[in-house]
User: Fold these one by one.
Assistant:
Number 1:
Amino acid sequence: MTTIEVNRVHYPVTALGPGTRAGIWVQGCTIGCAGCLAHDTWARKPDAAVPVADLLAWLAGLPERVDGVTISGGEPLEQPGAVGELLAGIHEWRGEREIDILLYTGMTYRKALSHRAEIVARCDAVVAGPYVAGRNTGDTPLRGSGNQRLVPLTPLGHRRYAPGRPPGRSMQVATAGNRAWLIGIPGPGDLDELSRRLRDRGIRLEGESWRQ
Protein backbone atom coordinates (compact mmCIF):
# COMPACT_ATOMS: atom_id res chain seq x y z
CA MET A 1 0.00 0.00 0.00
CA THR A 2 1.52 3.30 -1.10
CA THR A 3 1.13 6.23 1.28
CA ILE A 4 1.67 9.96 0.81
CA GLU A 5 2.30 12.61 3.45
CA VAL A 6 -0.45 15.21 3.15
CA ASN A 7 -0.81 18.62 4.75
CA ARG A 8 -4.44 19.10 3.70
CA VAL A 9 -7.01 18.64 0.98
CA HIS A 10 -9.80 21.02 0.05
CA TYR A 11 -12.82 21.33 -2.20
CA PRO A 12 -13.86 23.59 -3.79
CA VAL A 13 -10.69 25.47 -4.74
CA THR A 14 -11.26 28.49 -6.97
CA ALA A 15 -7.97 30.37 -6.58
CA LEU A 16 -5.36 27.98 -8.01
CA GLY A 17 -6.42 27.30 -11.55
CA PRO A 18 -9.47 27.77 -13.73
CA GLY A 19 -12.90 26.59 -12.68
CA THR A 20 -13.89 24.62 -9.61
CA ARG A 21 -11.05 22.41 -8.41
CA ALA A 22 -9.87 19.91 -5.85
CA GLY A 23 -6.69 20.86 -4.03
CA ILE A 24 -4.11 18.53 -2.53
CA TRP A 25 -1.15 19.91 -0.54
CA VAL A 26 1.60 17.43 0.27
CA GLN A 27 3.72 17.60 3.43
CA GLY A 28 7.48 18.04 3.27
CA CYS A 29 9.83 20.39 1.42
CA THR A 30 13.61 20.69 1.64
CA ILE A 31 13.87 23.64 -0.80
CA GLY A 32 12.90 26.16 1.88
CA CYS A 33 12.44 29.31 -0.18
CA ALA A 34 13.07 32.51 1.77
CA GLY A 35 9.77 34.27 2.29
CA CYS A 36 7.71 31.11 1.79
CA LEU A 37 4.21 31.56 3.17
CA ALA A 38 3.69 27.90 4.05
CA HIS A 39 6.35 26.94 6.59
CA ASP A 40 3.86 24.48 8.04
CA THR A 41 4.35 22.29 4.98
CA TRP A 42 8.15 22.03 5.23
CA ALA A 43 8.76 19.30 7.82
CA ARG A 44 8.18 15.69 6.84
CA LYS A 45 5.51 14.13 9.05
CA PRO A 46 5.17 10.37 8.74
CA ASP A 47 2.09 10.51 10.95
CA ALA A 48 0.43 12.63 8.24
CA ALA A 49 0.75 9.82 5.71
CA VAL A 50 -2.45 8.51 4.16
CA PRO A 51 -2.94 5.81 1.53
CA VAL A 52 -2.97 7.15 -2.01
CA ALA A 53 -6.10 5.09 -2.47
CA ASP A 54 -7.84 7.23 0.18
CA LEU A 55 -7.08 10.42 -1.76
CA LEU A 56 -8.43 8.86 -4.93
CA ALA A 57 -11.57 7.78 -3.07
CA TRP A 58 -11.97 11.37 -1.81
CA LEU A 59 -11.73 12.69 -5.36
CA ALA A 60 -14.21 10.12 -6.60
CA GLY A 61 -16.68 11.20 -3.92
CA LEU A 62 -16.66 14.89 -4.84
CA PRO A 63 -19.64 16.55 -6.52
CA GLU A 64 -19.77 16.28 -10.30
CA ARG A 65 -18.43 19.81 -10.84
CA VAL A 66 -14.66 19.29 -10.85
CA ASP A 67 -12.76 21.18 -13.53
CA GLY A 68 -9.28 20.42 -12.29
CA VAL A 69 -6.97 19.09 -9.59
CA THR A 70 -4.20 21.29 -8.19
CA ILE A 71 -1.31 19.57 -6.40
CA SER A 72 1.01 21.73 -4.33
CA GLY A 73 2.79 21.64 -1.02
CA GLY A 74 5.27 21.29 0.33
CA GLU A 75 7.18 19.85 -2.58
CA PRO A 76 5.31 17.17 -4.55
CA LEU A 77 8.41 16.02 -6.44
CA GLU A 78 10.06 14.94 -3.18
CA GLN A 79 7.50 12.13 -2.90
CA PRO A 80 7.84 10.86 -6.47
CA GLY A 81 6.57 7.33 -6.01
CA ALA A 82 3.43 8.37 -4.18
CA VAL A 83 2.72 11.38 -6.39
CA GLY A 84 3.27 9.28 -9.50
CA GLU A 85 0.74 6.74 -8.27
CA LEU A 86 -1.67 9.55 -7.37
CA LEU A 87 -1.41 11.05 -10.84
CA ALA A 88 -1.95 7.68 -12.47
CA GLY A 89 -5.08 7.24 -10.37
CA ILE A 90 -6.33 10.71 -11.28
CA HIS A 91 -5.92 9.91 -14.97
CA GLU A 92 -8.01 6.77 -14.52
CA TRP A 93 -10.65 8.60 -12.46
CA ARG A 94 -11.10 11.50 -14.88
CA GLY A 95 -11.28 9.29 -17.95
CA GLU A 96 -12.37 11.37 -20.93
CA ARG A 97 -13.61 14.28 -18.80
CA GLU A 98 -11.73 17.55 -19.17
CA ILE A 99 -10.32 17.68 -15.66
CA ASP A 100 -6.86 19.23 -15.82
CA ILE A 101 -3.95 18.51 -13.48
CA LEU A 102 -1.88 21.52 -12.37
CA LEU A 103 1.22 20.80 -10.29
CA TYR A 104 3.35 23.29 -8.35
CA THR A 105 7.05 22.60 -7.78
CA GLY A 106 9.85 24.68 -6.33
CA MET A 107 12.28 23.02 -8.73
CA THR A 108 13.11 24.83 -11.95
CA TYR A 109 11.35 23.36 -14.95
CA ARG A 110 14.66 22.06 -16.32
CA LYS A 111 15.48 20.30 -13.04
CA ALA A 112 11.96 18.88 -12.77
CA LEU A 113 12.29 17.43 -16.26
CA SER A 114 15.72 15.94 -15.57
CA HIS A 115 14.81 14.49 -12.17
CA ARG A 116 11.08 13.71 -12.39
CA ALA A 117 10.19 13.59 -16.09
CA GLU A 118 7.71 10.76 -15.54
CA ILE A 119 5.68 12.94 -13.15
CA VAL A 120 5.81 16.06 -15.30
CA ALA A 121 4.55 14.00 -18.23
CA ARG A 122 1.34 13.17 -16.34
CA CYS A 123 0.43 16.84 -15.74
CA ASP A 124 -1.50 19.19 -18.01
CA ALA A 125 0.44 22.19 -16.71
CA VAL A 126 3.24 22.86 -14.24
CA VAL A 127 4.20 25.96 -12.27
CA ALA A 128 7.95 25.55 -11.72
CA GLY A 129 10.65 27.45 -9.92
CA PRO A 130 11.56 28.61 -6.43
CA TYR A 131 9.64 31.45 -4.83
CA VAL A 132 11.61 34.72 -4.76
CA ALA A 133 9.94 37.23 -2.48
CA GLY A 134 11.64 40.20 -4.13
CA ARG A 135 10.04 39.26 -7.45
CA ASN A 136 6.50 39.01 -6.10
CA THR A 137 4.94 41.97 -7.90
CA GLY A 138 1.36 40.78 -7.49
CA ASP A 139 0.72 40.61 -11.24
CA THR A 140 1.87 37.09 -12.19
CA PRO A 141 -1.22 34.88 -12.67
CA LEU A 142 -1.01 31.61 -10.71
CA ARG A 143 2.63 32.30 -9.79
CA GLY A 144 4.10 33.71 -6.61
CA SER A 145 7.07 35.44 -8.25
CA GLY A 146 8.06 36.52 -11.72
CA ASN A 147 10.90 34.00 -12.07
CA GLN A 148 8.50 31.06 -11.90
CA ARG A 149 7.27 29.48 -15.13
CA LEU A 150 3.75 28.37 -15.98
CA VAL A 151 4.22 25.63 -18.58
CA PRO A 152 1.23 24.12 -20.44
CA LEU A 153 2.01 20.53 -21.44
CA THR A 154 -1.05 18.99 -23.10
CA PRO A 155 -3.78 20.21 -25.47
CA LEU A 156 -6.05 20.70 -22.46
CA GLY A 157 -3.25 22.50 -20.64
CA HIS A 158 -2.68 24.84 -23.59
CA ARG A 159 -6.38 25.67 -23.80
CA ARG A 160 -6.50 26.59 -20.13
CA TYR A 161 -3.00 27.86 -19.33
CA ALA A 162 -1.61 29.42 -22.51
CA PRO A 163 -0.44 33.06 -22.12
CA GLY A 164 -3.43 35.29 -21.56
CA ARG A 165 -5.69 32.39 -20.52
CA PRO A 166 -4.99 31.83 -16.80
CA PRO A 167 -7.18 33.78 -14.38
CA GLY A 168 -5.61 36.57 -12.35
CA ARG A 169 -4.63 36.13 -8.73
CA SER A 170 -7.33 35.58 -6.17
CA MET A 171 -7.58 34.35 -2.59
CA GLN A 172 -10.07 32.27 -0.66
CA VAL A 173 -10.33 31.42 3.03
CA ALA A 174 -11.14 27.97 4.40
CA THR A 175 -11.88 27.17 8.03
CA ALA A 176 -12.08 24.11 10.25
CA GLY A 177 -12.85 24.62 13.92
CA ASN A 178 -10.59 27.42 15.16
CA ARG A 179 -8.17 27.04 12.27
CA ALA A 180 -8.19 29.01 9.05
CA TRP A 181 -6.02 28.79 6.00
CA LEU A 182 -5.65 30.84 2.87
CA ILE A 183 -5.77 29.35 -0.58
CA GLY A 184 -4.22 31.29 -3.42
CA ILE A 185 -1.25 33.55 -4.01
CA PRO A 186 -1.13 36.85 -2.12
CA GLY A 187 0.57 39.95 -3.41
CA PRO A 188 2.88 42.22 -1.41
CA GLY A 189 1.16 43.43 1.73
CA ASP A 190 -2.02 41.37 1.22
CA LEU A 191 -1.54 39.24 4.32
CA ASP A 192 -0.77 42.19 6.58
CA GLU A 193 -3.89 43.89 5.27
CA LEU A 194 -5.93 40.77 5.95
CA SER A 195 -4.60 40.57 9.52
CA ARG A 196 -5.43 44.24 10.08
CA ARG A 197 -9.00 43.85 8.83
CA LEU A 198 -9.54 40.81 11.02
CA ARG A 199 -8.19 42.64 14.08
CA ASP A 200 -10.61 45.47 13.36
CA ARG A 201 -13.38 42.89 13.65
CA GLY A 202 -12.06 41.45 16.89
CA ILE A 203 -10.46 38.38 15.30
CA ARG A 204 -6.84 37.72 16.26
CA LEU A 205 -4.65 35.37 14.28
CA GLU A 206 -2.06 33.23 16.08
CA GLY A 207 0.63 30.97 14.68
CA GLU A 208 0.45 32.34 11.15
CA SER A 209 2.65 30.18 8.93
CA TRP A 210 3.81 33.17 6.90
CA ARG A 211 5.39 34.77 10.01
CA GLN A 212 7.43 31.74 11.07
Note: Helices lie at 52-60, 80-94, 109-120, 155-161, 190-200.
Number 2:
Amino acid sequence: MLRKLLELFSRESLLDQAHADIITMLKEDNEMFGEAIRTLRHSDTAELRFDFQEKDRYINKLEREVRKKVITHLSVQQGFNISAALVITAIVHDVERIGDYCKNIAELASLHPKEMALGELEGGFQDIEKAISNRFDKTIKALEEIDVDIANTVLDEHPGITRFCDSVVRALVNEEISDLKPGEYASLALYARYLKRTASHLSNIASSIVNPFHRIGFRPKDKGNGVEELDS
Protein backbone atom coordinates (compact mmCIF):
# COMPACT_ATOMS: atom_id res chain seq x y z
CA MET A 1 0.00 0.00 0.00
CA LEU A 2 2.61 2.57 0.99
CA ARG A 3 4.72 1.80 -2.07
CA LYS A 4 1.77 2.80 -4.25
CA LEU A 5 1.50 5.95 -2.19
CA LEU A 6 5.16 6.79 -2.82
CA GLU A 7 4.49 6.63 -6.55
CA LEU A 8 1.93 9.38 -6.03
CA PHE A 9 4.36 11.44 -3.93
CA SER A 10 6.47 12.16 -6.99
CA ARG A 11 3.48 13.87 -8.60
CA GLU A 12 1.58 15.27 -5.64
CA SER A 13 3.45 17.94 -3.69
CA LEU A 14 1.06 18.00 -0.72
CA LEU A 15 1.45 14.28 -0.14
CA ASP A 16 5.20 14.56 -0.57
CA GLN A 17 5.20 17.19 2.17
CA ALA A 18 3.00 15.03 4.41
CA HIS A 19 5.40 12.11 4.00
CA ALA A 20 8.36 14.33 4.91
CA ASP A 21 6.48 15.69 7.94
CA ILE A 22 5.81 12.18 9.25
CA ILE A 23 9.48 11.26 9.00
CA THR A 24 10.44 14.49 10.80
CA MET A 25 7.97 13.67 13.56
CA LEU A 26 9.39 10.17 14.04
CA LYS A 27 12.93 11.54 14.21
CA GLU A 28 11.78 13.94 16.94
CA ASP A 29 10.24 10.97 18.77
CA ASN A 30 13.53 9.13 18.50
CA GLU A 31 15.40 12.01 20.14
CA MET A 32 12.81 12.18 22.91
CA PHE A 33 13.03 8.44 23.53
CA GLY A 34 16.80 8.49 23.84
CA GLU A 35 16.77 11.45 26.20
CA ALA A 36 13.95 10.04 28.33
CA ILE A 37 15.84 6.76 28.75
CA ARG A 38 19.05 8.61 29.61
CA THR A 39 17.34 10.70 32.25
CA LEU A 40 15.47 7.83 33.85
CA ARG A 41 18.13 5.16 33.70
CA HIS A 42 21.51 6.86 33.56
CA SER A 43 21.18 10.08 35.54
CA ASP A 44 20.76 11.00 39.19
CA THR A 45 18.76 14.09 38.27
CA ALA A 46 15.53 14.56 36.32
CA GLU A 47 17.04 17.29 34.18
CA LEU A 48 16.41 17.03 30.44
CA ARG A 49 18.78 18.35 27.81
CA PHE A 50 15.92 19.90 25.85
CA ASP A 51 12.30 20.95 26.38
CA PHE A 52 9.98 17.97 25.92
CA GLN A 53 6.90 20.18 25.97
CA GLU A 54 8.28 22.24 23.10
CA LYS A 55 9.03 19.12 21.07
CA ASP A 56 5.58 17.74 21.85
CA ARG A 57 3.95 20.95 20.63
CA TYR A 58 6.03 20.75 17.44
CA ILE A 59 5.00 17.13 16.84
CA ASN A 60 1.34 17.99 17.43
CA LYS A 61 1.62 20.90 15.02
CA LEU A 62 3.08 18.63 12.33
CA GLU A 63 0.28 16.11 12.93
CA ARG A 64 -2.28 18.82 12.25
CA GLU A 65 -0.35 19.90 9.16
CA VAL A 66 -0.31 16.34 7.81
CA ARG A 67 -4.07 16.03 8.29
CA LYS A 68 -4.62 19.39 6.64
CA LYS A 69 -2.48 18.47 3.65
CA VAL A 70 -4.27 15.16 3.21
CA ILE A 71 -7.76 16.68 3.36
CA THR A 72 -6.73 19.56 1.10
CA HIS A 73 -5.38 17.11 -1.45
CA LEU A 74 -8.55 15.03 -1.32
CA SER A 75 -10.64 18.16 -1.79
CA VAL A 76 -8.90 19.30 -4.96
CA GLN A 77 -7.76 16.04 -6.56
CA GLN A 78 -10.48 14.01 -8.22
CA GLY A 79 -10.10 10.26 -8.53
CA PHE A 80 -7.55 10.02 -5.73
CA ASN A 81 -7.30 6.63 -3.99
CA ILE A 82 -8.75 7.35 -0.56
CA SER A 83 -7.04 4.27 0.92
CA ALA A 84 -3.68 5.96 0.44
CA ALA A 85 -4.86 9.00 2.39
CA LEU A 86 -6.10 6.74 5.18
CA VAL A 87 -2.67 5.11 5.40
CA ILE A 88 -1.04 8.50 5.98
CA THR A 89 -3.51 9.47 8.70
CA ALA A 90 -3.05 6.08 10.41
CA ILE A 91 0.72 6.47 10.44
CA VAL A 92 0.67 10.01 11.78
CA HIS A 93 -1.54 8.95 14.69
CA ASP A 94 0.95 6.27 15.74
CA VAL A 95 3.86 8.68 15.44
CA GLU A 96 2.10 11.23 17.64
CA ARG A 97 1.29 8.61 20.27
CA ILE A 98 4.94 7.55 20.47
CA GLY A 99 5.81 11.11 21.47
CA ASP A 100 3.26 10.91 24.29
CA TYR A 101 4.83 7.73 25.67
CA CYS A 102 8.28 9.31 25.52
CA LYS A 103 6.86 12.16 27.60
CA ASN A 104 5.48 9.60 30.05
CA ILE A 105 8.95 8.09 30.50
CA ALA A 106 10.40 11.57 31.12
CA GLU A 107 7.62 12.29 33.63
CA LEU A 108 8.45 9.02 35.38
CA ALA A 109 12.06 10.21 35.62
CA SER A 110 10.85 13.41 37.33
CA LEU A 111 9.12 11.26 39.97
CA HIS A 112 12.17 9.03 40.25
CA PRO A 113 15.08 11.50 40.24
CA LYS A 114 17.73 8.96 41.14
CA GLU A 115 19.10 6.60 38.52
CA MET A 116 16.55 3.83 38.13
CA ALA A 117 18.18 0.52 39.01
CA LEU A 118 16.26 -2.63 38.15
CA GLY A 119 17.98 -5.33 40.15
CA GLU A 120 17.83 -8.77 38.59
CA LEU A 121 15.95 -7.33 35.60
CA GLU A 122 18.68 -4.86 34.69
CA GLY A 123 20.14 -6.90 31.85
CA GLY A 124 16.75 -7.67 30.33
CA PHE A 125 15.71 -4.03 30.32
CA GLN A 126 19.00 -2.94 28.79
CA ASP A 127 18.36 -5.36 25.93
CA ILE A 128 14.80 -4.09 25.42
CA GLU A 129 15.86 -0.43 25.53
CA LYS A 130 18.52 -1.10 22.91
CA ALA A 131 16.11 -3.12 20.77
CA ILE A 132 13.51 -0.34 20.74
CA SER A 133 16.16 2.28 19.97
CA ASN A 134 17.31 0.20 17.01
CA ARG A 135 13.70 -0.19 15.88
CA PHE A 136 13.37 3.59 15.70
CA ASP A 137 16.28 3.69 13.25
CA LYS A 138 14.87 0.82 11.21
CA THR A 139 11.37 2.26 11.10
CA ILE A 140 12.62 5.67 9.98
CA LYS A 141 14.70 4.04 7.24
CA ALA A 142 11.79 1.84 6.18
CA LEU A 143 9.55 4.91 5.90
CA GLU A 144 12.12 6.93 4.01
CA GLU A 145 12.76 4.17 1.49
CA ILE A 146 9.39 2.38 1.65
CA ASP A 147 11.40 -0.77 2.29
CA VAL A 148 9.26 -3.82 2.98
CA ASP A 149 12.22 -5.96 4.06
CA ILE A 150 13.30 -3.52 6.77
CA ALA A 151 9.70 -3.12 7.91
CA ASN A 152 9.42 -6.89 8.23
CA THR A 153 12.44 -7.01 10.52
CA VAL A 154 10.69 -4.51 12.81
CA LEU A 155 7.61 -6.73 12.87
CA ASP A 156 9.69 -9.85 13.52
CA GLU A 157 11.15 -8.27 16.67
CA HIS A 158 7.77 -7.30 18.11
CA PRO A 159 6.75 -10.53 19.91
CA GLY A 160 9.95 -10.73 21.97
CA ILE A 161 9.56 -7.19 23.29
CA THR A 162 5.91 -7.77 24.15
CA ARG A 163 6.66 -11.03 25.94
CA PHE A 164 9.37 -9.45 28.06
CA CYS A 165 7.26 -6.45 29.12
CA ASP A 166 4.29 -8.68 29.93
CA SER A 167 6.47 -11.03 31.94
CA VAL A 168 7.76 -8.13 34.05
CA VAL A 169 4.26 -6.95 34.92
CA ARG A 170 3.16 -10.51 35.67
CA ALA A 171 6.17 -11.04 37.95
CA LEU A 172 5.41 -7.81 39.80
CA VAL A 173 1.78 -8.73 40.33
CA ASN A 174 2.74 -12.19 41.57
CA GLU A 175 5.43 -10.75 43.89
CA GLU A 176 8.15 -12.75 42.19
CA ILE A 177 10.74 -9.95 42.24
CA SER A 178 12.36 -9.50 45.63
CA ASP A 179 15.32 -7.15 45.22
CA LEU A 180 13.45 -3.88 44.65
CA LYS A 181 12.46 -1.16 47.11
CA PRO A 182 8.69 -0.76 47.67
CA GLY A 183 8.43 2.44 45.65
CA GLU A 184 10.19 0.89 42.68
CA TYR A 185 7.48 -1.67 41.95
CA ALA A 186 5.01 0.89 40.61
CA SER A 187 7.75 2.67 38.64
CA LEU A 188 8.86 -0.57 37.06
CA ALA A 189 5.33 -1.58 36.06
CA LEU A 190 4.75 1.81 34.42
CA TYR A 191 8.09 1.72 32.65
CA ALA A 192 7.43 -1.75 31.21
CA ARG A 193 4.06 -0.53 30.00
CA TYR A 194 5.49 2.60 28.33
CA LEU A 195 8.18 0.58 26.56
CA LYS A 196 5.64 -1.94 25.32
CA ARG A 197 3.32 0.76 23.96
CA THR A 198 6.19 2.57 22.24
CA ALA A 199 7.24 -0.67 20.58
CA SER A 200 3.64 -1.41 19.56
CA HIS A 201 3.22 1.91 17.78
CA LEU A 202 6.50 1.40 15.93
CA SER A 203 5.18 -1.98 14.82
CA ASN A 204 1.94 -0.40 13.63
CA ILE A 205 3.95 2.01 11.49
CA ALA A 206 5.99 -0.84 10.04
CA SER A 207 2.81 -2.79 9.31
CA SER A 208 1.55 0.10 7.17
CA ILE A 209 4.50 -0.48 4.83
CA VAL A 210 3.92 -4.22 4.61
CA ASN A 211 0.13 -4.55 4.76
CA PRO A 212 -2.90 -3.09 2.98
CA PHE A 213 -4.83 -0.48 4.97
CA HIS A 214 -7.33 -2.85 6.56
CA ARG A 215 -4.47 -4.87 8.13
CA ILE A 216 -2.48 -1.98 9.60
CA GLY A 217 -1.78 -2.88 13.22
CA PHE A 218 -1.86 -6.61 12.45
CA ARG A 219 0.86 -9.08 11.58
CA PRO A 220 1.17 -10.10 7.93
CA LYS A 221 -1.08 -13.09 7.26
CA ASP A 222 1.85 -15.47 6.85
CA LYS A 223 3.23 -14.50 10.29
CA GLY A 224 0.09 -14.46 12.40
CA ASN A 225 0.79 -17.70 14.30
CA GLY A 226 -2.73 -17.54 15.69
CA VAL A 227 -2.24 -14.13 17.32
CA GLU A 228 -2.68 -11.39 14.74
CA GLU A 229 -2.82 -8.17 16.74
CA LEU A 230 0.44 -6.25 17.05
CA ASP A 231 -1.00 -3.95 19.67
CA SER A 232 -1.49 -6.64 22.28
Note: The first helix runs from residue 2 to 9.
Number 3:
Amino acid sequence: MLANGERLTLREILELDLGQARLAVLSACETGIPGTNLLDEVVSLPSGFLQAGVPGIIGSLWSVSDASTMMLMARFYDFWKIDNLDPPEALRQAQIWLRDTTNGGKEDYFKQSLPEYAGTKMPEAAARKALREVLQQDELARSYKHPYHWAAFGYTGM
Protein backbone atom coordinates (compact mmCIF):
# COMPACT_ATOMS: atom_id res chain seq x y z
CA MET A 1 0.00 0.00 0.00
CA LEU A 2 1.12 3.50 -0.79
CA ALA A 3 -0.10 6.85 0.46
CA ASN A 4 -3.83 7.50 0.16
CA GLY A 5 -4.58 3.78 0.02
CA GLU A 6 -3.09 3.34 -3.46
CA ARG A 7 -1.64 -0.04 -4.35
CA LEU A 8 1.65 -0.77 -6.05
CA THR A 9 1.75 -4.32 -7.33
CA LEU A 10 4.73 -6.50 -8.07
CA ARG A 11 3.52 -6.67 -11.67
CA GLU A 12 3.73 -2.85 -11.92
CA ILE A 13 7.22 -2.86 -10.43
CA LEU A 14 8.37 -5.49 -12.94
CA GLU A 15 7.15 -3.27 -15.80
CA LEU A 16 9.30 -0.32 -14.66
CA ASP A 17 12.77 0.59 -15.92
CA LEU A 18 14.61 1.58 -12.75
CA GLY A 19 18.12 1.11 -14.09
CA GLN A 20 19.09 4.68 -13.11
CA ALA A 21 18.22 4.12 -9.43
CA ARG A 22 20.96 3.21 -6.95
CA LEU A 23 18.82 1.96 -4.08
CA ALA A 24 15.22 1.26 -3.10
CA VAL A 25 14.49 1.60 0.62
CA LEU A 26 11.29 -0.19 1.61
CA SER A 27 11.05 0.91 5.23
CA ALA A 28 7.49 -0.26 5.88
CA CYS A 29 6.51 -3.51 7.58
CA GLU A 30 7.25 -6.88 5.95
CA THR A 31 8.53 -5.41 2.67
CA GLY A 32 11.21 -8.08 2.26
CA ILE A 33 9.04 -11.17 2.73
CA PRO A 34 8.52 -13.39 -0.32
CA GLY A 35 4.95 -13.93 -1.46
CA THR A 36 3.29 -17.32 -1.23
CA ASN A 37 1.10 -17.26 -4.34
CA LEU A 38 3.73 -18.94 -6.54
CA LEU A 39 5.02 -21.83 -4.53
CA ASP A 40 7.70 -22.74 -7.11
CA GLU A 41 9.32 -19.30 -7.03
CA VAL A 42 10.61 -16.78 -4.54
CA VAL A 43 8.82 -13.59 -5.46
CA SER A 44 9.13 -10.51 -3.29
CA LEU A 45 9.25 -6.75 -3.56
CA PRO A 46 13.08 -6.80 -3.41
CA SER A 47 13.26 -9.35 -6.23
CA GLY A 48 10.83 -7.23 -8.26
CA PHE A 49 12.98 -4.12 -7.79
CA LEU A 50 16.09 -6.13 -8.72
CA GLN A 51 14.36 -7.31 -11.89
CA ALA A 52 13.36 -3.69 -12.67
CA GLY A 53 17.03 -2.68 -12.53
CA VAL A 54 17.63 -1.41 -8.99
CA PRO A 55 20.97 -2.83 -7.85
CA GLY A 56 20.20 -2.69 -4.12
CA ILE A 57 17.10 -2.90 -1.94
CA ILE A 58 16.53 -2.58 1.79
CA GLY A 59 13.41 -4.28 3.13
CA SER A 60 12.02 -5.63 6.40
CA LEU A 61 11.10 -9.16 7.38
CA TRP A 62 8.53 -8.41 10.07
CA SER A 63 6.26 -5.71 11.46
CA VAL A 64 8.48 -2.96 12.75
CA SER A 65 8.11 -0.18 15.29
CA ASP A 66 7.54 3.25 13.72
CA ALA A 67 9.82 4.98 16.23
CA SER A 68 12.78 2.61 16.02
CA THR A 69 12.46 2.36 12.22
CA MET A 70 12.54 6.14 11.90
CA MET A 71 15.66 6.28 14.08
CA LEU A 72 17.31 3.46 12.14
CA MET A 73 16.55 5.07 8.77
CA ALA A 74 17.74 8.51 9.93
CA ARG A 75 21.11 7.04 10.90
CA PHE A 76 21.23 4.89 7.76
CA TYR A 77 20.87 7.94 5.52
CA ASP A 78 23.55 9.80 7.47
CA PHE A 79 25.98 6.90 7.15
CA TRP A 80 25.15 6.50 3.46
CA LYS A 81 24.87 10.08 2.23
CA ILE A 82 27.08 12.03 4.67
CA ASP A 83 29.72 9.43 5.59
CA ASN A 84 29.69 7.90 2.07
CA LEU A 85 29.42 4.30 3.24
CA ASP A 86 28.07 1.71 0.81
CA PRO A 87 24.40 0.95 1.54
CA PRO A 88 24.98 -2.49 3.13
CA GLU A 89 27.63 -1.08 5.48
CA ALA A 90 25.55 2.04 6.19
CA LEU A 91 22.64 -0.20 7.19
CA ARG A 92 24.91 -2.33 9.37
CA GLN A 93 26.34 0.72 11.12
CA ALA A 94 22.85 2.14 11.67
CA GLN A 95 21.73 -1.17 13.18
CA ILE A 96 24.75 -1.21 15.51
CA TRP A 97 24.05 2.41 16.49
CA LEU A 98 20.38 1.72 17.26
CA ARG A 99 21.27 -1.40 19.24
CA ASP A 100 24.24 -0.08 21.22
CA THR A 101 23.70 3.64 21.76
CA THR A 102 22.15 4.72 25.04
CA ASN A 103 18.94 6.69 25.02
CA GLY A 104 21.03 9.71 26.07
CA GLY A 105 23.24 9.23 23.00
CA LYS A 106 20.17 9.07 20.79
CA GLU A 107 18.86 12.23 22.45
CA ASP A 108 22.11 14.03 21.63
CA TYR A 109 21.97 12.85 18.02
CA PHE A 110 18.39 13.99 17.42
CA LYS A 111 18.95 17.32 19.15
CA GLN A 112 21.55 18.08 16.47
CA SER A 113 18.76 18.06 13.89
CA LEU A 114 16.67 20.72 15.63
CA PRO A 115 17.10 24.39 14.75
CA GLU A 116 17.51 25.45 18.38
CA TYR A 117 20.47 23.08 18.67
CA ALA A 118 21.84 23.85 15.17
CA GLY A 119 22.30 21.33 12.36
CA THR A 120 19.74 20.20 9.80
CA LYS A 121 20.38 16.50 9.22
CA MET A 122 16.72 15.48 8.97
CA PRO A 123 13.28 17.04 8.85
CA GLU A 124 12.54 18.89 12.06
CA ALA A 125 9.26 17.03 12.70
CA ALA A 126 11.02 13.65 12.50
CA ALA A 127 13.77 14.80 14.84
CA ARG A 128 11.22 16.09 17.37
CA LYS A 129 9.26 12.83 17.25
CA ALA A 130 12.41 10.78 17.87
CA LEU A 131 13.55 13.08 20.63
CA ARG A 132 10.16 12.77 22.40
CA GLU A 133 10.45 8.99 22.13
CA VAL A 134 13.89 8.79 23.76
CA LEU A 135 13.17 11.45 26.38
CA GLN A 136 10.47 9.21 27.83
CA GLN A 137 13.04 6.56 28.69
CA ASP A 138 15.96 6.12 31.06
CA GLU A 139 18.91 8.09 29.68
CA LEU A 140 21.45 5.33 30.41
CA ALA A 141 19.35 2.45 29.09
CA ARG A 142 19.60 0.94 25.63
CA SER A 143 15.88 0.69 24.92
CA TYR A 144 16.33 -0.51 21.34
CA LYS A 145 18.86 -3.29 21.90
CA HIS A 146 16.36 -6.09 21.21
CA PRO A 147 16.66 -7.46 17.64
CA TYR A 148 12.98 -6.61 17.06
CA HIS A 149 14.01 -2.96 16.68
CA TRP A 150 16.99 -3.29 14.35
CA ALA A 151 17.29 -6.76 12.82
CA ALA A 152 14.19 -6.76 10.60
CA PHE A 153 15.98 -4.83 7.87
CA GLY A 154 18.28 -6.48 5.38
CA TYR A 155 20.01 -5.52 2.16
CA THR A 156 19.43 -7.44 -1.06
CA GLY A 157 21.57 -6.87 -4.13
CA MET A 158 25.08 -6.05 -5.16
Note: The chain has one domain: 3-101+142-157.
